[in-house]
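=== RUN LOG ===
request id: a7f3
mode: sequence -> structure
chains: 1
length: 89
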Amino acid sequence: MKSKIARFVIKQHKEKLNPNETDILIKSASRSSSYAIRESKALGLTIKSISGKKIIEKLPNGEIKILRDLQGKHTTEIGLKKGMVLCRR
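=== RESULT ===
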């Protein structure tokens, strides 16, 4: 699998005259993750992922279990800001 991914990255690099490194990394990451998901399904392993605000687990038989809900960030109302120095009296 690694050689296929390496060939894909090299091919993309040669095709563009001025390749953007970020685009190459994004494409290679998406391709490698699709290979990993396909292999996991073939081996009968579960796949955990984030969908919306939930962590889900996809079982090999097609079932989907919700493991837990993700919570949003809590905002502080006391006026603390990043970089402030707190002193204890």
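=== NOTES ===
Strands lie at 47-51, 54-58, 64-69.
Residues 21-43 form the longest helix (23 residues).
=== END ===
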